[in-house]
Amino acid sequence: MMRSSEFQFANQWGLLLAAGVLMAAVLLWLSERRLRKASPAEHPLADSDGVRRSQSVLLLVSAMALLGGSAACFWVLLGTDAVLYDEPLFLLGLALLVLVVLLASVSVWIRRRHVPVFVLPSLAPLKAVRAGRPTWLRYAVPLLRISALLLIVAAVARPQVATTEADVFTEGMDIVLTLDVSTSMRAVDFAPPSRRQTRTSRIKGAKEVISRFIQQRSDDRLGLVVFAAEAFTQSPLTLDYSILHNVLQSIKTGVIEDGTAIGNAIMVSVNRLRESEAKSKVIILLTDGDDNASKISPVQAAEIAAGEKIRIFPILVGKGGLVDYPVGKGIFGRTQYRKVEIRTNPELLKRIADIADGKFYRAVDQSKLEKDFQDILDQMEKSRLMDPGRFTRHAEVYQLALLPALLALLLELAMRWTGLRRFP
Questions:
Q1: Which domains are delineated in the chain?
Q2: Is 0.70 topped by the overall pTM?
């Protein structure tokens, strides 16, 4: 499967707000340059107390608008996936953020219109003043402030990284795993050679081997069918192994009416593979018993599979004969076992394999079952297939804009209160 990533903004209103902030900054810069070129007589002096009071009011209103607008926008962004333009709370938040820009512009305009005056009795004290900072540093403070505001607005615009997975052709085969979940699969004779003292049920051992088999696949489409007295599809053919693995872990015995319907299981598996275009179509049939509940003969089902060019590889799970079987709990809560004979029919499975151009296996433990799976893969022919579908995942990365904004604000405050402090 081919993957591609791209960067995008989910909220276009945020981009418009960022453009407005940038335009306001340019206008303020041009206004400042015009005022600097004007003569002192052209500057309308304002009352210092009045300027301070005005700026205090503007600062208070701006702070409240900034907090309210940011809270409203992020509340909607984090709490809904609906269209943002239809959310009144989000539009209110954007309006408050626009108000912050306007109030900041008015505050800067008022401050620029006021010319501070510092009266000295003579010019002698000025001669002792050392040269100031480089001229270009005086632009650092407003530049950092504007950068912080733009980054905050960019975060409101919801920057995202979109990862798209598209349809591609890959080398692989189509495999349907057909698992017996009748109660006989609870028999505990399936421990691996390294743990002979442990009691591992057939169903648990088979699920562990199938799980490792799924993890080792990369280009093969896999499906899952379970059966007892009836057969059901648990997962159609897919390349999404994580979903298939989760479905496998949820499988239990005793959920379906008890019995062993091998013929039904083969037909349900064949139906999963009928529309497949792969050259290699395989059914791996895992069972521990004899057919006793099928509505269609297993041999007839195998003939239909052979007509569809589907190969069947039956695997007889367990040792057969008398085996330990859980029958309940003892007075101390420990599981009690007794010897039970489970009927098998290896001749039927061999005939199914012969008809459907497969091979019969008998697995007495997990290690042997893993070898059987590998042997099946070695016999198969690779073919080209396609997994239909195209979907995109979105990852929010707004924090990548908020962190630099915070750093820019802290740096701007540090510079404005220390080396670039202005006087008067």
A1: 2-118+133-163+395-417 (no CATH), 169-386 (3.40.50.410)
A2: no
